[in-house]
Structure to design on (117 residues):
């Protein structure tokens, strides 16, 4: 059971425009904070989805425009893993299963080892 939520957040900037972040909200302290490293790859127009916590809650996997990304929950590391969607962590957090669709109506299930992020 997690006491934290991860989600996409769009924030207005001084002088106009927007910034987009992955945001973590701690339900116990009611404190929310932005993962600043995700700001570099996200824009207002970018769609993200499939936000998934690792089993130990140290990393978050998400999909942006057909690529799977991982960011550490302490906001120290951000890494693009591969092309794909619908990531799911293994029980030990060492692998991610995901889908690829190399052709229309053809789906492949892939499993990838996740190196330290």
């Amino acid at each position: 059971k997690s006491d934290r939520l991860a989600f996409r957040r769009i924030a207005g900037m001084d002088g106009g425009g927007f910034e987009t972040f992955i945001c973590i909200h701690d339900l116990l302290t009611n404190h929310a904070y932005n993962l600043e490293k995700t700001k570099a790859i996200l824009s207002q127009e970018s769609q993200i989805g499939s936000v998934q916590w690792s089993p130990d809650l140290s990393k978050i996997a998400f999909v942006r425009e057909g690529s799977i990304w991982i960011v550490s929950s302490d906001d120290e590391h951000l890494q693009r893993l591969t092309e794909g969607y619908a990531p799911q962590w293994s029980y030990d957090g060492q692998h991610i299963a995901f889908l690829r669709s190399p052709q229309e109506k053809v789906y492949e299930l892939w499993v990838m080892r996740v190196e330290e992020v």
About this structure: Residues 5 and 72 are 14 Å apart (CA to CA).
